[in-house]
# Entry
Amino acid sequence: NAGVMQNPRHLVRRRGQEARLRCSPMKGHSHVYWYRQLPEEGLKFMVYLQKENIIDESGMPKERFSAEFPKEGPSILRIQQVVRGDSAAYFCASSPSERVSGQPQHFGDGTRLSIL
Amino acid sequence: GENVEQHPSTLSVQEGDSAVIKCTYSDSASNYFPWYKQELGKGPQLIIDIRSNVGEKKDQRIAVTLNKTAKHFSLHITETQPEDSAVYFCAVQGNIQGAQKLVFGQGTRLTINP
# Structure
């Protein structure tokens, strides 16, 4: 999955701490998507961003979760006051901007978040 | 919203045989159908995709068929090899601008027995 870079690959936090997950899209891609995967389950959409804009956050929990994709720098998924249920793999995907729909989304290798 | 069902959840085949994984979806407006392969500790890797104006697409040992009327699509892997062992996910995307999220199936764990 070279191209979409996520860091850190593994993140351990204690309950109540904050988690920050970073994603750099593939070169030339301006659309970023975040998905969450629980063990033995499929990926669930969280949020879709373009530079400086949140386009669709219908999958994002209303509290404690936020995402941004600034003009400069990576996209950030931020989880405040983490709880055990936040333990999961978080994947970022990116796609090019030329097409409105049917754009292949390319995934990074994810951040495995563990809450103690 | 869109609902995607994937079957089977596990599949074991002998090396050299074929494997078929099927998905059904609920929203007839969906128009993009990718398949991903996920290996342990890795992110999903796009292996093939199909758009709604096409009924079948093939890439070497991998093919995908789409039946828009019945709202189902299938992944076919022929001449399976041990390196095909992985979890496979189907996904569906709508055609509404701004609503480009992928809705994934539950996954199929494919094991190729040597």
Summary: Chain B touches chain A through 29 residues (CB under 8 Å). The radius of gyration of chain B is 14 Å. Chain B has a mean pLDDT of 93.
